[in-house]
Amino acid sequence: MPNNTTTTLEVTAVNTEYLNTRLHDLGISDEQNIFTRVWNQTSSGVGDDGKIVTTTNEQKREYKIFEADEEGNIVIHYFNLMGQPYSWKKKDTKWPRDFVRTRLRVPRGDQKYNQEEGSGQYPFFTPGLISKYKQNKDSANIDATPVAPVDILFIVEGEFKAFKGYMAGLDIIGVLGIHGFYNGDVRGKLHDDVQDLIITCKVRKVVFLVDADLLTVKWEEKKDGSVRIDQTIYVERDSQKKIVLGHKGETIRAIGQAARMELSGILEQKVHLFLFVKVRENWGDDPERYREMGLEFPH
Prior knowledge:
Largest sheet: 4 strands, antiparallel
Shape: globular
Radius of gyration: 24 Å
Distance between the termini: 62 Å
Structural class: alpha+beta
Strand content: 25-35%
Number of strands: 17
Strand order of the largest sheet: 3-4-7-8
């Protein structure tokens, strides 16, 4: 008699409430949350006439960019410039694994994001940039005018900010934090893939936007035709203030000089710009700050 056995598969329910709410508030549709990797696969074989025949077939694979895990957190997937998932190998393990970051549904104190220890850091390339890089790379000639040029490359802290910028038509990269564009653990060295993108797409200007609130506190026209502008840069922590100021104030001084020159050209008058850096805890979670800048608060 046959031995009848019944196998019961345990299905774990995934809590998608936080993911769905976040994507809805950001206006990200299910279609926009899909990244499609396209590549050509070449194979060779012997034809009926005994000659080697090489064929090339287009391959496609779809990935979700943001998805929920079993605990209802949001898992954020990272893709390199070729459209492949970034991967890393954990110590004492055999196989590499995909690099992901997790937006915690319930923050652990001040910690809103989590990633595996030792997984390193990678740039979050948006689908539009990956597409432009591939088009330019396929054109091959590095001296030629790129078929999909990138005039201004924006770098911003956070994957969701980067994705919203991409949806608005910006060429934009998300980074993990103020030092997230570095190459691995080598501070001061731009990530190899970011360098490759800048060279291949002939980027003319890079704009780095950090998590800080910039408000004009005073604008005064002077009798000599010049203008005095006092601005305060708000950051959330003392550690961020030190970064913005730089060693002996070098960073904020360079920012001020560059901004002063650009404002003078726009206003067509001499500009006296004075920048101040202050700590305002959790300003990024204050809807009023966004309204002051004419922005929608990202829930």
